[in-house]
Amino acid sequence: MHNKTLISVAVELPLKRTFTYKVPETLLEQVAVGKRVLVPFGKRVITGFCVGFIEKTEVKSLKDVLDILDDEPIFDEKRLKFFQWLSSYYFAPLGEALSLACPSWTNIKSQRYFFPTEELFDYQEKLSPLSQALFELILAKKGISLAHLLKTFKGKSIYNAINRLKQEKLIREEVKIKGKIGERTETFASLASECNYETFKRKAPIQAKIIAYLSEKGETSLKSLRNELGAIDSALKKLQQRGLIALIQRKAPRNPLEDILPQKLSHKLTYEQEKALSAISHGLKSNAFSPFLLYGVTGSGKTLVYLKAMEEAVDLGKKAILLVPEISLTLWPVKYLTAMFPGRVAILHSGLSDGERYDEWNRIKDGAVDIVVGARSALFAPVKDLGLIIIDEEHEPSYKQEEGVRYNARDVSLMLGKMFNLTVVLGSATPSVETFYNAQNNKITPLHLTKRVQDRPMPEVELVDMRKESQKSKVKSQTEYNKIISEKLQNLMLKNHELGYQTILFLNRRGFSNFLICNGCGYTFQCLNCNVSLTMHKGAGVLKCHYCDLSISIPEACPKCEGHQIEPVGIGTEQLEAEVRRILHKARIGRMDKDTTRKKRAHQKIVDAVDKGHVDVLVGTQMVAKGHHFPNVTLVGIVMADTSINIPDFRSSERTFQLITQAAGRAGREAFPGKVIIQTLNPDNFCLKLAIMQDYETFFKEELNNRMELSYPPFSRLINLRFEGNKEEAVKVFANKIKRFADRTLESSFKKDITILGPASAFLSKLRGKYRWHMLIKGNNIKSLHEFAEKILCESDKTIHSINLVIDVDPLTTL
Questions:
Q1: What is the CA radius of gyration of the chain?
Q2: Taking the CB of residue 272, how many other CB atoms lie within 10 A of it?
Q3: Residue 379: how many CB atoms within 10 A of its CB?
């Protein structure tokens, strides 16, 4: 039996340790591991997680827990072990790891308020001008929040002045607590007593309509009543006053799926799909950890296997999570899932409002859901009786979180499967090199789909050498020659539009142009916070940084030479869209990139428009290259295949092959054959040649040889150590100091196991105002790498605090 008076609490702050709190007698019956608790922390009141009980402590003065926030634990002790592993493996504070189980929009927030007391003596003589000004504002407002004071006295240090007012007993402080989001309620009307419709018909026709409607339909929401009967509020009030109708508040959960039209499955499984499903079904029935890789050509029907596998899981009394790399990709499976499991499907992603996410999360927690579909964070949803996890497009870098807990949802799903004996399916037409290597070495069971559904042909792919295209500009006028779209692609677009088919144009750069340059002095417009050029967004009239969101108006003159010879360089999706409009005057053009999908439901509207044939040409970034199934798309143009080839990262060839293969796979997925045009300045590049043939296995062998030569994953494991600070020289000095410590540690304990690369300035040497250096450590044994990184972290903690050390385990990029 635990002593429940002392508990260990993990708080959602960048702090490694847990904190001990005392549980007051009134809360002893409620406290349990896995519940959220409200605790005082310094001057704040914050949410924490109860992670254990403590028998005794040396600390004499302990703070009390203020409240227990949950009726039932959010996680049990077994699930807690999983989050402890997550925290340890990714060098993240336990509280931050646990916050993934209970996202921030469910947390309690606190705010400090100050109120005047009765002590109104002649304070002017005792107070500084700032203290006087603060007190007079608090007095005038009869109470005010700290946030309001900080905003009003921006740039001034007000904390000492506040403390002085408290010392003089002129003000008192209160901490007000409130939840960020609550349950939504809706008002419903029903007949409270029997009444005759005819007695109201002549003198009060609107009241009569309300009575007739409620008599027929029964209890109805006021929203529905207003929609059906129009302006009824006055009539409702009179009926309520006479005791003829009753109004009652009921819970009305927000439903992000209300606009989705369920669609029944009409497809039959092919022999290869049946074989794959049979293997997954066996894994589900075994109740043992069963990892699979479902891979095959684009259009081979992986989604149908996912849907049938989820159906099998539910038939066995289990539940499933389906992860997708992009918000827009939730729409395709959800159409079918809502038909297969009416009212039992939930979605979780950042495109929902906080209220929608709150309600969906609670539905999942309450066991009202069989299937959860979402982006990477949906992996941590509180699904009871989980049996199946599916990671669609498992190769996608968006599964790796780059801030906070830097986890990879693909890798974490495998550990979750191992710890809880789940079936885990990784799916992709272009698996990551590490995943395919593991499948070849029997760590994951491979399931191969070799053909497109109904033996449809793969699209015909053609390479266009843009170096030859540029020669045409010397013999043709500007109106005849287009530097963005080749003559070949332009002709095919025109023909495709005439035939009534759809086209997708893929360019992995948003905005109008990459940067602006002054042709008079060579000046380029750089971000003040980041070491990158500002991208021109012509429609918005701004130059924008895609890393920190800094934006400035497009200048008319060069700030350096004051000349007016400013010219945009490079192309983005905005410029490509404008060019398509010039070529196809009457075509309906859509664009899908980060700029056009900021608003709620924007992804859904664009996908629906293409699906219903309301868009003739869809222009977009990598959002259009992933997983979409548009039956009428017969032409795909990859406008600039070289954007990722020359990035100084060992995964650049893999990423290029994946993007091109996936984009090409959007063409000819139904009855009409597809055509793909790849425009490039590097026609001899091996990954482009293999992407044309959709030959993943040959690409894998080539890439594996390159990785083996340099001892990169899968032949080693990596941890990236990044040093960040406000002063460039200080960051450099600190990085080199840590390198000297690492060399000494390596020499004494880890010499055979680990290699150190760097330190060096990062490719993105300044980001969001922070200068960045990094050091890469690699080795074959992840346990040794962890121990080594832990020693470096301890050494870093002992020294300068103005430099932040970021540890990224299994990094997908070292930029």
A1: 31
A2: 18
A3: 22
